Amino acid sequence: xxxxxxxxxxxxxxxxxxxxxxQELGQKAIAAKARAHCPYSNFRVGAALLTPSGAYITGVNVxxxxxxxxxxxxxxxxxxxxxxxxxxxxxxAVATDISPPASPCGSCRQFVxxxxxxxxxxxxxxxxxxxxxxxxxxxLPMSFGPGHLKAEAGAAA
Length: 157
Prior knowledge:
By secondary structure, the protein is α+β, with helices and mostly antiparallel strands. The protein has helices spanning 6-14, 19-32, 73-83, 106-113, 136-139, 146-156, and strands at residues 45-50, 56-60, 91-96, 121-125, 131-135.
């Protein structure tokens, strides 16, 4: 029988996830790194989303010779999910080859915010497979989201 760290058990309880769901989410993000296309930076990033139905959707960073048009792993995963009809998510994992782990960039945080509540956990994995978790709200305080536009539209009517 495998032992479960007290931190993993606490995070599962905090975010109403099963321990195995967090483990699977992390494993999928870590495995996705192998498919990253990063010939310029050599900075591999893998991401995995967990949907309410229990599906996992992965993404990787895809660099381009014209640097600004590259796509981060998080945005890749979200776009892939949306194109498959998924627009709600329970958790996101991001994996890199550095320690401490990298957090999603500002653009990715805002992109994720379009589809996720501020309470959604983001598990950030380092090169050793260890993670730090923060909510989207902690990573993107005072965020601007879809509700702000709906409120403005309603006020103008």
